[in-house]
From TrEMBL:
Primary enzyme class: transferase
Keywords from the UniProt entry: Glycosyltransferase, Transferase
Gene3D superfamilies (alphabetical): Spore Coat Polysaccharide Biosynthesis Protein SpsA, Chain A
Highest taxon listed in the record's lineage: Bacteria
An example Gene Ontology molecular-function term: glycosyltransferase activity
EC number in record: 2.4.1.266
Protein name: Glucosyl-3-phosphoglycerate synthase
InterPro entries: Nucleotide-diphossugar_trans (IPR029044)
Amino acid sequence: MGDYHQNGNVATLHRFGTLDPADLERELNHYAQTRKISLILPSLYSELEAQALSDILDELSTASFVNQIIIGLDRADEEQYRYAKEYFSRLPQDHVVLWNDGPRLKAIDSRLGEMDLAPSEPGKGRNVWYCIGYALSAKNCDVIAIHDCDIVTYSKEMLARLVYPVTNARFPYQFCKGFYPRIADRKMNGRVTRLLVTPLLLALKKVIGQNAYVDYLKSFRYPLAGEFAMRTAILPEIRIPSDWGLEIGVLSEVYRNLSSNAVCQVDIADAYDHKHQPLSEDDATKGLSRMSTDICKAIYRKLAIDGVIFSPEIFRTLKATYYRIALDLIEVYYNDGLINGLHVDRHVEERSVELFAANIVEAGQVFLQNPMEAPFIPNWSRVQAADSDLMRELFEAVKADNEEFAA
């Protein structure tokens, strides 16, 4: 059951359980007649072998308000791409699979590379960026939604609630972020949000003082949620981060491009679970260790753009302040779990905080050593300006793949 709380920075749309999901879907079907909705699914081939994606497709098959589904497929050879085409053929909606590792899309990527506009590294950010480029080239949608392919608690109501605020013409919102509690198997999950982002933002407020961007990030109930929707009109100006700072990076772009009145967050589920990344204490290039470093760098870069001056001393102070706040929050999370019958392992939580504290300083050192690092992929407006034919050729390349390897 949701509360009535509004933080004053962005609108929070709650989930009181007073509206039948079928009624919500009927409204969406009406609005979708004039505002076409597309869904982007960034997927690894390995996710086609998991039960979660199959269940997601079963739900999406009855989501009549969705006009088109764009699947970005990574790490697939030709045989696997053929299988993916067959796998997704169960979807009744118009759908298309981008074979990101196929020769046609690799040729597009090479052309972008020659102009120094190609994504710098593989991953979800690159996948989403190409899907957005395709959506813009197809010119057949007014609303774009994005969510992951590993959600094990998925229902189409989650998607309906996510797109409703930017589809209903009576609402002013152009961007909507989903939120939910990360609870599964009687455990409290969402470690990076709970143990890194929340205490880090509180620490930043103490160390650097009042800051509008920090307040903006603090207003989101689940800033690392991978579920968001937006009006297609803002997509050409949105830059997509290529590293694991995708969600924070998108929020930063929205902060730069939109008024707060055009931004909202919506409660999309009572419970949410997906695959969990390892802490990866012994390998800083993987798991939550890599993720925490990339998130910290994304926040530092945005604050620097807004005029905040960083130094080694500030990062050391930030680490100490963060560490004390995070330990206090572990006590709060433990008590919150206890009253709800959830397990919170204090030892594991403190190990996570110790790793994140070290990475706060490590990310700061990387930032100071290379302040000109450009992790954002150029937006599609810049690509269009550099090569006016490329988006059309991207569309034709995806179309040719889908026709040649038809299931």
